[in-house]
């Protein structure tokens, strides 16, 4: 099947269902980690945009992160539209929990799977077993293995760019001098590694900026709150905080506001989730940049199904870009996320 032929089939199969006319979310909200039990969940897939019903397994870092919960919602919704039954294996924001989930995944048969690894080289054995069975594996957002183990394709945002553009905005806002803090995600997460690289590239241009701390918080908002409570006691003159995702930035913003220092410290994050877009508009955050969770996850549904039904020539790497949040584009970004498109 050619890519053009595939797209013609999708449009024909989904036009009657209203895919191209609009998206009905039914008032659903992304599930939290606590709401998403048990670890493996199925969303029924009907129809047949790909000529037959398909079964797919998905896992991302953990549904306790809003980016991951939004991605799950997008994958399941697009799966229903396109006749792909999506079963979810929650990573639990833990290397050990995700490894167990992927071991469970690998013990079953699937038409394709899609995985965002919590840590590099932590899932290689079960993923390799699936690849050896001929199951296409779509890598989302982060790297599964530092070696080429036969991944079908990698859907990745430009994490270095995102880290650099947010850091640059913060450094400009403080006049190119002062003391700043970077709160990292999980150190084994390749997206976090590249977001730190972007920060370092930006700060190299500013000799008068001092970095006070670079602690990881593992995407955990409770860890962030504790870190920033300690920072506010230890450091009286913090000028800016850069965070590897918006959940962590907003958690710190609450701590900073409670301490009465919200006018003294500018904050920026990554992901441009709806609460962060609102926070940019009201001044709680200086900026965020979109890591397109919906596009990455529905892209994995579409491309995985293409691979499972014989499409060839799929590139090994596909850049999934997203814009910086501004006053001009904020409402449009909000809308696109509500429709599970971006």
Explain this structure to me?
- The protein is α/β, with parallel strands linked by helices.
- It folds into two domains: 3-157 and 292-323, 3-Layer(aba) Sandwich (Rossmann fold), CATH 3.40.50; 159-282, Response regulator (Rossmann fold, 3-Layer(aba) Sandwich), CATH 3.40.50.2300.
- The protein has eleven helices and eleven strands.
- It has a seven-stranded mixed beta sheet, with helices on both faces.
- Helix 6 (190-203) links the parallel strand 7 (178-183) and strand 8.
- Helix 2 packs parallel to helix 10, helix 3 (95-106) packs parallel to helix 4 and helix 9 (274-282) runs antiparallel to helix 11.
Give the helix/strand layout:
Layout: H1 3-14, E1 40-43, E2 54-59, H2 66-82, E3 84-89, H3 95-106, E4 112-115, H4 124-132, E5 137-140, E6 153-156, H5 159-173, E7 178-183, H6 190-203, E8 209-213, H7 221-234, E9 238-243, H8 246-258, E10 266-268, H9 274-282, H10 293-308, E11 317-319, H11 330-338
Parallel strand pairs: 2-3, 2-4, 4-5, 5-6, 6-11, 7-8, 7-9, 9-10
Antiparallel strand pairs: 1-3
Helix pairs in contact: 2-10, 3-4, 5-6, 7-8, 9-11
What descriptors fit this protein?
342 residues; alpha/beta; 11 strands; 41% helix; four-stranded parallel beta sheet; Rossmann fold; seven-stranded mixed beta sheet; disordered N terminus
The CATH homologous superfamily of the largest domain is called Response regulator
If strands are numbered along the chain, what order do they take across the biggest sheet?
A: 1-3-2-4-5-6-11
Terminal residue distance: 27 Å
The amount of beta strand, in percent, is: 5-15%
Helix content: 40-55%
Q: Provide the gyration radius in Å.
A: 20 Å
Largest sheet: 7 strands, mixed
């Amino acid at each position: 099947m050619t890519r053009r032929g595939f797209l013609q089939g999708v449009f024909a199969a989904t036009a009657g269902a209203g895919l191209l006319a609009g998206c009905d979310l039914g008032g659903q909200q992304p599930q939290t980690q606590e709401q998403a039990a048990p670890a493996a969940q199925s969303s029924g897939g009907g129809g047949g945009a790909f000529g037959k019903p398909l079964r797919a397994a998905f896992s991302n870092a953990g549904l306790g992160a809003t980016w991951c919960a939004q991605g799950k919602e997008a994958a399941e919704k697009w799966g229903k539209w396109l006749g792909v039954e999506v079963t979810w294996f929650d990573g639990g924001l833990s290397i050990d929990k995700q490894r167990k989930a992927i071991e469970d995944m690998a013990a079953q048969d699937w038409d394709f799977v899609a995985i965002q690894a919590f840590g590099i080289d932590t899932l290689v054995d079960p993923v390799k077993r699936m690849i050896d069975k001929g199951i296409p594996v779509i890598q989302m957002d982060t790297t599964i293995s530092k070696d080429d183990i036969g991944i079908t394709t990698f859907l990745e945002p430009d994490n270095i760019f995102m880290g650099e553009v947010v850091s640059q905005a913060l450094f400009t806002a403080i006049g190119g001098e002062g003391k700043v803090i970077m709160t990292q995600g999980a150190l084994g997460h390749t997206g976090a590694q590249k977001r730190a690289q972007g920060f370092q590239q930006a700060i190299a241009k500013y000799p008068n900026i001092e970095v006070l701390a670079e602690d990881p918080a593992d995407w955990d908002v409770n860890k962030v709150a504790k870190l920033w409570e300690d920072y506010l006691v230890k450091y009286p003159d913090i000028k800016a905080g850069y965070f590897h995702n918006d959940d962590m930035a907003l958690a710190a913003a609450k701590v900073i506001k409670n301490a009465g220092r919200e006018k003294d410290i500018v904050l920026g994050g990554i992901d441009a989730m709806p609460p962060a877009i609102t926070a940019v508009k009201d001044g709680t955050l200086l900026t965020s940049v979109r890591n397109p969770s919906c596009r990455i996850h529905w892209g994995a549904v579409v491309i995985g199904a293409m691979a499972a039904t014989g499409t060839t020539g799929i590139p090994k790497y596909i850049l999934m870009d997203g814009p910086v949040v501004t006053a001009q584009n904020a409402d449009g970004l909000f809308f696109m996320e509500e429709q599970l498109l971006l």
